[in-house]
Amino acid sequence: MSADVAAESTAVRIDDHRTLVLSVPDWSAVAAATEHDLSPRTPVAVLSGGQVVAANAPARAAGIALGNNKRAVGYRCPEAHVVAWDEEADNRHFSAGVGALEELVARFTLLSPGTLAIPLDSLKHGYADEPSAVEALISALVSATGWEFFPGIAGTVFAAVLAAGQARRVEPGETAEFLAVQPVSTLEYAGAGATELIDTFTQLGLRTLGDLAALDARDVNSRFGALGKRAHDLATGVEWTPLSDHVREERLNVELGLDTPTTRSDTLGFLTRQLAAELLTAVRSRGLVCTQITIELIAVSGQFSKRTWRIEDMNENTIADRLRWQAEGWLAGATRQGPAAARTGPQTGSGPQAQAGSAPQIGTAPDDPGPDPEDFSEEGIIAVGLVAAELTTPIGATRSLFDENTGQVTHTLERLQGLFGPDSVLVPGLQGGWDPAETNLWTPWQQAASPVRSPGAPWPGALHAPRPTTVEHLPIDVLAAGGRPVGARPAGLESAPYAIRFPTGTTEEIADYSGSWPVESGWWDPAKAIYRTRLQVVTGSGQALLLSKENGQWYITGRYR
Fold first, then answer.
1. What are the angstrom distances between the C-alpha of 534 and each of 469, 516, 545?
2. Do residue 278 and residue 357 come from a single domain?
3. Is the separation of the CB atoms in 296 and 389 below 8 Å?
């Protein structure tokens, strides 16, 4: 397919902000064949949710189509190899295969398994024009992997993804025209969030992206919120987010085994500086930059502490400081729980549960004073390991000159962590979930977040942006005009909400309210199952509240500021 793009009669110089997307058709089937060591001539069908989501060329030639069930596959092609979709294999094989690009281009992004993007401005100095760049890159990838690649070039990443599906090169300045004729269903390539709107847009008579782009952006935003604004931007050729550089898969790590276990943080810090210098030298020799580092401490008893830190200006001293803070935080947990806990207690990690378990409890003191404040366990630390957890190119780690200087704030927060432990400074984030209280994620400053629930997974009925500024669970009464309680059913409210009566006895009228919507979560576990009805209201005094009715009781579950 590369010849379709490379054989352009008019060579056009690579212009800024254009993107090349290379896509492997039927990637999940290709990855499944690789995983199971199958011949390229073997028909392969990949199933997810009981339906075919990918089929290679031999399978399609035998009549297998997307959406077929397993029985239909067996009927149409009895010799087909049917496998369940394996997301881990999809990612693993693609990341390994495209490693050939790391020697050819300075920057590229893995958009999804089977699809990658390259900013063409990064190829200006290596190739004369776009067709020659595409030809050279595809030739190298095909030689290294044996896969078939469809190229697409356009002015935005989204348009380039659509162009790759057609093996097409969109001329400079024609991206908007190219997008205008694409069906609105192509928004599915923008992610699960946009696909939720496709049916609605179709019902409204919007058949193409041009129909959507013709609407006023403010109207779309007010009706469909952030998801609608994103879809409108994509349809009009506005880039949604910039490309992030591919993280190299190469594992760089150094380890140090101690001849004599040590129980002193200053000794560990000194040894770590030497170890960190060795690791950073290896990183720099490859022309890369390390932005996250994983520190591992192993005690004689076999217990270990492992945390991943993000450090903007990484050097030997900053790495040694993080190791010392991590070790002292580990000590604090062992001191509170006693020496036995240091030997047999739960392992320390970077997940939320582990972080919560090691948080200092000010004002409490154990009966047993525990080990010396410099001890990490009764036996001591026997090994230290450093892993370059995230590698990127120098340009990918460069901050904008327009970013505010936060060095003083960073220094203050690091000082607090040094004095009171790494868990003393937490930063907020979001994770998956239905209720605002469970979507909150608190992570120690400069550590990699470890969400318990994936924020990228679908959460039907979850609250969309804007999210409440504060989260609470305050019981209230929601009253109708006659003073009767407002009931809630799956079909909606039994009567219009008129006022809120707070626990203090004061009552405030409701000036405006949204439609109610039911949410059922945890239905698969009777112990966790919750059925609630949500409602957003604005009171006469201007308070914006999120209400929820659970087990017959109304609550204020969030406040908007």
1. 17, 6, 11
2. yes
3. no
Question: Cβ distance 389 to 293 under 8 Å?
Answer: yes
* Contact assessment for residue 231 and residue 190, using Cβ atoms and an 8 Å cutoff: yes
The answer on 219 and 160 residing in a single domain is no
Which domain covers residue 71, as residue numbers? Answer: 2-165
Question: Residue-wise over 455-487: b if at least 16 C-beta within 10 A, else e?
Answer: eeeebeebbeeeebeebeeeebebbbeeeebbe
């390991």: which residue's tokens? 385
For residue 109, which phi and psi values (nearest 5 degrees)?
A: -130, 135
Residue 430 CA to residue 467 CA, distance in Å, equals: 10
Contact 17, 121 (CB under 8 A): yes
Note whether 204 and 312 are same-domain residues: no
Q: Which two structure tokens, joined as six digits, stand for 39?
A: 């011949």
CB 526, CB 546: distance < 8 Å: no
Let me know whether 217 and 326 are in one domain: no
Helices within 146-249 (DSSP H only): 157-165, 175-180, 192-203, 209-213, 217-236
Asked if 480 and 498 count as a contact pair (C-beta separation under 8 A), the reply is yes
Q: Is the domain of 152 the same as that of 41?
A: yes
Domain CATH number, residue 262: 3.30.1490.100
Give Cα 22 distance to the centre of its chain: 22
- For 30, the enclosing helix (H) or strand (E) is helix 27-35
Spatial distance between the Cα atoms of 331 and 305, rounded to a whole number of angstroms:
10
Separation of alpha carbons 243 and 239, rounded Å: 10
Q: What b/e string do you get for 300-309 counting C-beta neighbours within 10 Å, with b at 16 or more? A: beebbbbbbb
What's the domain count of the chain? Answer: 4
**pLDDT tens-digit profile, the chain (561 residues):** 443 443 333 333 444 478 899 999 889 999 999 888 888 889 999 998 888 989 998 999 999 998 899 899 999 999 999 999 888 788 778 877 777 776 777 677 778 888 888 888 777 766 777 788 888 888 888 888 888 899 999 988 889 999 998 889 998 889 999 999 999 988 887 665 566 688 888 888 999 999 999 999 888 887 887 788 888 888 888 865 556 555 555 668 888 888 777 767 777 878 888 888 888 888 887 777 787 788 888 888 788 788 777 776 788 888 888 887 777 767 555 544 444 344 333 333 333 333 333 333 223 333 333 334 344 445 677 888 898 877 776 555 555 444 444 455 666 676 676 666 667 778 777 787 777 777 777 887 767 677 777 776 667 667 776 778 788 889 999 998 888 889 887 777 888 899 999 988 889 999 988 888 887 776 777 777 778 888 889 998 888 999 988 888 999 988 888
Asked whether residue 204 falls in the same domain as residue 230, the answer is yes
Asked if residue 203 belongs to a domain, the reply is: yes
Long-range contacts of the stretch 184-191 (C-beta < 8 A, 24+): 184/208, 184/209, 184/211, 184/212, 186/162, 187/231, 187/234, 187/235, 189/158, 189/161, 189/162, 190/158, 190/230, 190/231, 190/234, 190/240
pTM above 0.70, yes or no: no
